[in-house]
Amino acid sequence: MASTTPPSRPAARPDDAPPAVLAAPAPGVLTFTAPRRAKPPRHLADLDAAARAEAVTELGEKPFRARQLSVHYFDRLVDDPAHMTDLPAASRERLTAALLPPLLSAVRRQECDRGTTVKTLWRLFDGALVESVLMRYPDRVTVCVSSQAGCGMNCPFCATGQAGLTRNMSTAEIVEQVVAAARAVARGEVPGGRPGAADRVGNVVFMGMGEPLANYSAVLGAVRRLTDPAPDGLGISARGVTVSTVGLVPAIDRLAGEGLPVTLALSLHAPDDELRDELVPINTRWRVAEALDAARRYVEVSGRRVSIEYALIRDVNDQAWRGDRLGRLLAARGRGWVHVNPIPLNPTPGSKWTASDPHVMDRFVEAIRAHGVPVTIRDTRGKEIDGACGQLAAAP
Length: 396
Ligand code: SAH
Description:
Blueprint: H1 49-58, H2 64-75, H3 89-99, E1 105-112, E2 117-123, E3 129-136, E4 141-144, E5 148-150, H4 159-163, E6 165-168, H5 171-186, E7 203-206, H6 216-227, E8 241-245, H7 249-256, E9 263-267, H8 273-279, H9 288-302, E10 306-312, H10 320-331, E11 338-344, H11 358-369
Parallel strand pairs: 4-7, 7-8, 8-9, 9-10, 10-11
Antiparallel strand pairs: 1-2, 2-3, 3-4, 5-6
The protein binds S-adenosyl-L-homocysteine.
């Protein structure tokens, strides 16, 4: 764990800034505990409704101001305090200074797909860098968010994993990525919606940087803020929220117990322990069978179908026999509980691996389907701007 700042860091960062990119972790090494760093400032989005009323009272304001502030932030997506005209000037200043500190500053914005895919690189209060990706489709808007700066899970085919873990993000830092995207869409800055289609963010996927279940409480807080009805939260349906994990089994069970019907995605990438030990090093802790059993239990409790993510890597994990084995493992655990979402590997810098050939993918998919398990090849966006799955590395 690198918790000291190397002497070579650029002078532009504040003194307590973590290095933007840590030394690459040795193969297979897992990092569960984020290095201790200064906490991001407290923000309205970190707090539930009761805690907001309390915070507002502590500032010497009437508790109902908490609701007014929440309406501005979550419902109207206001970011300029001057527009909060129902708050007297002095209160407005006090409340926004204490509860709406700026947490993300945009360093770079890149777009592709005619402007309907937008990747933003954000600088956090301490100089740490994260990325989020906004994808507008004719009928929906999806935001892919980061939950950690970097990642400790060290999957060798993922650019984020190669950079190591800088730190956990706070609940508000996660929520702010969605609010920023929601504002951009609401202000007409993102083309692509069908006329008359919703211009609200309806889907949030925890598939940006980081392992969400390794930053459990901040992520759960963010899910609550995203799904709480306005003005307590953004009012996004829990069904529209997907938490993607390498398979931290105890955390999957804990999530199942929260009573939030979010969609779980399990990054499997191999049906056999031997290969998965290499591709997803957490497999040395929780084996394929244990991860699948946990996913199955999640369905039992939540009623939500799980998706299995599988990046198809040429000549590594794309053999038809592996498709067959995967189909068998899934079918053995019941019908209708799961679907498989293969995705051709997105290239990452320095990796020797590439995507499978289309006909090889087809044979892999057929081998799974033969067991009655539904499969859809994942649509991938943002490759041209290194914004696709596994390409987020947050280099400035
Ligand atoms: N840590 C979480 C979420 C982040 S990654 C997880 O691993 O599930 C989101 C998805 O992108 C995961 O399934 C991940 O395995 C996949 N991914 C990573 N690198 C990729 C790459 N180079 N090409 C395609 N998918 C990739």
